[in-house]
Amino acid sequence: MIKAIVTDIEGTTSDIRFVHNVLFPYARQHLAAFIASHEQQPDVAAELDAVRNEIGQPQATTREVVSALLAFMDEDRKSTPLKALQGMIWQTGYQQGDFTGHLYPDVLPALQKWQASGIALYVYSSGSVAAQKLLFGYSDAGDITPLFSGYFDTHVGHKRETASYQAIARKTGFAPGELLFLSDIRQELDAAREAGWQTVQLIRGAADNASQHPQVGDFSAINPEA
Ligand SMILES: CSCCC(=O)C(=O)COP(=O)(O)O
Ligand SMILES: [Mg+2]
């Protein structure tokens, strides 16, 4: 029996094009100016040091760190400090109303129904927890963060690693078999299944014929109460 659902964002609750065509370019455009004006701020300085650590250059200048971050963006690297800095930059965009967090229309009704039936809802994305709260706090449907009991990002581990799902199960207190992971990416679902979770793959675009997971076109086709 499913007691908790953990959902991915990009390609699952929200259009991948919103992330890649709106959020990522916004962060890239504002990165250098944001770092120039915030690099003395302790939380920003800590992330810049984490980038220096990640590239193995503890003495890297700010300019070199910005270059490394731009290269990470080019390869869509799920770097924890990059994700933290992107979230900080997006905060201004959301607050100014430059964009709202995209939600597929089937998502909110399903989340509301599942929560009303007693199923706990969580988010797991490579985007930082702060970025997740912004997307759902400033979503197309308004602030839907009260629906969620918790959020997980790469601090718990990467999404294609089984240990990440084992850690989330421990942190939420649910048995692995009581957890359902929703994602568009087969390799993430493989890792969750390896940890004993149930899985459903969202096919929002092209078919994935190599997948062994149950597949649905949208959230209305998922029946965790059954
Ligand atoms: C919190 S929305 C931005 C998502 C993001 O930054 C990202 O890299 C998406 O990665 P995912 O592993 O969740 O597909
Ligand atoms: Mg995804």
Structure commentary:
This protein has helices spanning 16-38, 42-54, 62-74, 80-96, 107-116, 129-137, 162-172, 186-194; strands at 4-7, 120-124, 150-152, 179-183, 198-202, 215-216. With 226 residues, the chain is of the alpha/beta class. The protein folds into 2 domains: 4-15 and 101-221, 3-Layer(aba) Sandwich (Rossmann fold); 19-96. It has a 6-stranded parallel sheet with strand order 3-2-1-4-5-6, with helices on both faces. Helix 1 runs antiparallel to helix 3 (62-74), helix 2 (42-54) runs antiparallel to helix 4 (80-96) and helix 7 packs across helix 8. It is globular and about 55 Å long. Magnesium ion binds at residues 8, 10-12, 183-185. This is Enolase-phosphatase E1.
Salient structural properties:
Rossmann fold, binds ligand L4RZE5RM, binds magnesium ion
Unique bound compounds: the ligand CSCCC(=O)C(=O)COP(=O)(O)O, magnesium ion
The gross shape turns out to be: globular
Highest-level CATH class of the largest domain: Alpha Beta
Question: Can you tell me the CATH superfamily of the largest domain?
Answer: HAD superfamily/HAD-like
When the domains are counted, the total is 2
Mean pLDDT: 98
Strand-residue fraction? 5-15%
Q: What structural category characterises the helix and strand content?
A: alpha/beta
Count of strand segments: 6
Distance between the termini: 8 Å
Determine the oligomeric state from the structure: single chain
Pfam families: Hydrolase
Cofactor: Mg(2+)
Organism: Mangrovibacter phragmitis
Catalytic activity: 5-methylsulfanyl-2,3-dioxopentyl phosphate + H2O = 1,2-dihydroxy-5-(methylsulfanyl)pent-1-en-3-one + phosphate
